[in-house]
Each structure stands twice: as C-alpha cells, then as structure tokens.
Design brief:
Layout: H1 9-19, H2 27-33, E1 38-42, E2 45-48, E3 53-56, H3 59-62, H4 71-83, H5 96-108, E4 113-119, H6 122-139, E5 147-151, H7 160-165, H8 169-172, E6 182-185, H9 190-193, H10 199-217, E7 222-227, H11 243-254, E8 257-261, H12 275-278, E9 285-288, E10 300-305, H13 306-313, H14 327-342, H15 345-362, E11 370-376, E12 379-384, H16 400-411, E13 414-415, E14 417-419, E15 422-425, H17 433-450
Parallel strand pairs: 3-13, 5-6, 5-7, 7-8, 8-9
Antiparallel strand pairs: 1-2, 2-3, 4-10, 9-10, 11-12, 12-15, 14-15
Helix pairs in contact: 4-14, 5-14, 10-11, 15-17, 16-17
The structure holds pyridoxal-5'-phosphate.
Residues 121-123, 126, 155-157, 228, 232-233, 261, 263-264, 289, 300 line the site of pyridoxal-5'-phosphate.
C-alpha cells in the first residue's frame, strides 16, 4: 500500500505504528493515540492529516530558519539533481556545490574559521570534531592530549561519539556511552541549580569547573572543550553573562581547543549569524547543521580554523562519510544562505522580530505557572514552577508539568517542546509580529489549561 497525504489518518497511523520506529519516542505510549501525521507546511504553519493548521514554534527541530515552502530551495535541489546528483569528494575529486558552500561558510564564519569538513548531520560533524582534535594534538607532537571535556545536559548528537560528548544521562544509560576519554562538568543553569548565588557569581563558578577539571586531568592531557553557546536541547539554558568570558580565559590559558557547537545557534537563531558572535567567543572549530540548509536537506559541517586545518591537511585524515559534501545538500544550503542574507532575514530577525518576540515572550512571566522567561534572538524558554520565590520544581516525575503543557499546546495547534519543566520555542526566523501574537496567545491559553 502506498498512502498519500490525503489518506485517512487512521490508516496512516496504523501503518506508521506497524513499521516505523520513531527516534526518542516511547513506542508503546505513541501506540495508544498514534502519531500526528504532518502532511504539508508553508511559512511557519504545518498541516496535519486531519486538516488542522498548526503554528510551528520549533521550526521543525530548530531547523527551518527560513520557513517552510521556499520554491527556490526546491528548484536548487532539482537543478542539482539533474546536473550532478552525486559524486564523492574523497579521492582527489571535488565538485562545484561543495566548493561554493565551503567558500561561503568561510566567508560567513568569524575569525580564521576558513576550512570546512562536511558531514550529513550535527552528530556526524561532532564525531568528526572528536577525531579531528585528537588527531591534531597527535600530529602536533602531544599525543597524550586526548581528553575532551563537555557538559552535563549538553547535547551534541546521538551517535556513539557525539552522544558521549553530550551529557544526557538518559542516553548514557543505553548502549555503552560515554566512550572513554570524555569528561562532563556541570552546566551553567542558574535557575535550577544556582541556589542563593547571584547569577554572575554562579556563572563564574560553573566556568571555573572547567579549570578544575583541566587540572584534575593534567593540563597537558586535555585536547578540547566542547559546548553549545546556548544549550538548546537541554532546555534553552542561557548562561549567565560571566560564563563565556571565563571559559574563553581558561581555554586560552591552557591552550585547549574550543569547539562551539552551533548546530542550533547558527544561522541567525541567536540574532547574529553564529552564537559565538552573540557570546563573543573565539572557537577553533564550529559545528553546524540544521539551519545551514534550513532542514531542507540533511547536511552538517565542521568549520575549522587555519591553525587546525593546517595540521590536519598535513596528514591523511582517515575520516569521511560517503555523503560528505553531497552536491544536492550543498546546493540547497548555498541557496538557503543566499536567501537568508539577500532577503535580510537574519538582520530582520535580529533588529525587528527578535526584540518584539522577546518583549512578548517575557510577558508570560506574569502567569502563575511561569518562574522565568529567557530568550536570545529566536530561541527561548520558560520555566514552570509551583513556587516562583523558591524556584521549586513540581513534585512527582520531573517534566510532568511540562508534559501537560506540551499536550495542551498540541491540542491548541501550537508546537512547543518541553524539556523537564521548561517549555521551549525556536520559531522560524521569518515569523511575523502577528504570528508572534498568535504564538503567545496560544501559549498562554495552554498554560491556563494546564494550571
Ligand atoms: N548539536 C546540537 C547542539 C544539537 O542541538 C543537535 C541536534 O539537536 C546535534 C548536535 C545533533 O545533530 P543531528 O541531530 O543533526 O545529528
């Protein structure tokens, strides 16, 4: 049977349940009500197989920065498929889309991040980074520098390497992660973990955990520190202002490579092209994916400094994916970057819709359930609490309040995610002020219903 977007929902759900294993999903739980089947999308709006129109405040999975339904991207894919649907870039060959995209990324990326190693996802790009930084130190004559430090509740992907870099305990509990040589320090999550400290003091203290870990491992044994400029999947946790300057000071002091995982933060999400610019840090490598193609094609990349690239280019780096620099994905990403730039989408998001979204989103703090609202650019979250003064968590299973609110949002045709008791938004950068009003109105209604 080949079903279509117009097939009855029950048939689509039944076949889905019979054969399709969903990521990060409790299959049995889904079985009772079935998956919601998304059939089409335009701008910031999804259609489901029951004819509902849903406001997608998550841009898919933090991906669709440019919004759904851009013909130009479909055209770019079709054109490239006709011209050269595939060729690899392994064995002394290259092709036009990969050349152009690498050059464009070098132009957009800050500092001397001028070299691009392609992958198909954020996970794969972070696996590349893990091997690349270890190879770098090996070739630099410091082969003992193999330890990599990251953070609890950071997210860097779902492969064994990138999942080990991530600090998701639920993931570590399954399938043999983390692999050796990866060490996690606590996150700069003031609201939940800051106790009586000021945000600034807490930010400094959490950054200094990096120095402690470096000294514990031996400064000469550490290859790199990896972190998201703003944690996304962990709950959109905006670090205190003191955090990143201190991290930068520490990595500089010990000569440790800094990997900024920009998979969510990149391509306008935080207001600038990259979260590293918003946070004023100088990474040696940036991981990108998601917004690179606005999710229209699977593609990721490591954007690498002159210094690191020089060393890696000096050896045969035995690493790569069949689809590294896939021509169709590169062509689509290139067109996506052209539109984000030429239509002023990134600058409009920074200067117009970003400030408006922030102002509206922060009004949610007057809701009895909401302890704080944090937002940078087009990524934000609210904390749900039974007691604003103590910043307490809801009793019972963590995330219950978030789960209920998420279900209410779902019923009100608004996609917001929950992580524990935080509710997240990450809308397309093209969201209009009117759509922002709709987002806030539906979020408020859902909170009321959950209260
Ligand atoms: N890094 C970050 C910061 C992410 O948010 C994600 C995905 O959400 C990844 C890496 C993994 O990317 P992918 O799912 O494309 O493998």
């Amino acid at each position: 049977t080949i079903l279509t977007p117009n097939s009855p929902t029950a048939e689509l759900q039944a076949l889905d349940a019979a054969h399709h294993m969903h990521p990060f999903t409790h299959g049995a739980g889904l079985g009772e009500k079935g998956a919601r089947i998304i059939t089409r999308a335009e701008g910031c709006w999804l259609n489901d197989s029951d004819g509902n129109r849903i406001l997608d405040a998550m841009a898919g999975l933090w991906c669709v920065n440019i919004g759904y339904g851009r013909e130009e991207l479909a055209e770019a894919a079709a054109r490239q498929m006709r011209e050269l649907p595939f060729y690899n870039t392994f064995f002394q060959t290259s092709h036009v889309p990969a050349i152009n995209l690498a050059a464009r990324l070098a132009e957009l990326a800050p500092g001397d991040l001028n070299h691009v190693f392609f992958a198909n996802s954020g996970s794969e790009a972070n696996d590349t980074n893990l091997r690349m930084v270890r190879t770098y130190w090996q070739e630099k004559g410091q082969p003992q520098r193999q330890h990599v430090i990251s953070r609890w509740n950071g997210y860097h992907g779902s492969s064994v390497g990138s999942g080990s870099l991530g600090g998701m305990k639920g993931m570590h509990a399954q399938g043999g992660m983390p692999i050796p040589g990866i060490h996690h320090i606590d996150q700069p999550y003031w609201y939940l973990e800051g106790g009586n400290m000021s945000e600034d003091d807490f930010g400094l203290a959490r950054a200094q955990l990096l120095e402690e870990k470096i000294l514990e491992l031996g400064a000469d044994n550490v290859a790199a520190f990896i972190a998201e400029p703003i944690q996304g999947a962990g709950g959109v946790i905006v670090p205190p202002a003191t955090y990143w300057p201190e991290i930068q000071r520490i990595v500089d002091k010990y000569g440790i490579l800094l990997i900024a995982d920009e998979v969510i933060c990149g391509f306008g999400r935080t207001g600038e092209w990259f979260g590293s610019q918003t946070m004023n840090i100088r990474p040696d490598i940036m991981t990108v994916a998601k917004g690179l193609s606005s999710g229209y094609q699977p593609i990721g990349a490591s954007i690498v400094s002159d210094g690191v690239a020089k060393v890696i280019d000096g050896v045969e780096f035995n690493h790569g994916y069949t689809y590294s620099g896939h021509p169709v994905a590169c062509a689509v990403a290139l067109e996506n970057l052209r539109l984000l730039d030429e239509e002023g989408i990134v600058t409009r998001a920074r200067d117009e819709t970003g400030p408006y979204l922030k102002a509206q989103f922060e009004t949610l703090t007057d809701h009895p359930l909401v302890g704080e609202a944090k937002i940078v650019g087009h990524m934000g979250s609210i904390a749900l609490t039974p007691d604003k003064a103590s910043r307490a968590r809801f009793a019972g299973e963590a995330g219950t309040a978030g789960f209920i609110t998420r279900e209410r949002c779902f019923a009100n045709n608004l996609i917001m995610r929950h992580v524990g008791d935080r509710m997240i938004i990450s809308p397309p950068l093209v969201i209009s002020k009117e759509e922002i009003d709709t987002l806030i109105e539906r979020a408020r209604r859902s909170l009321d219903e959950a209260h």
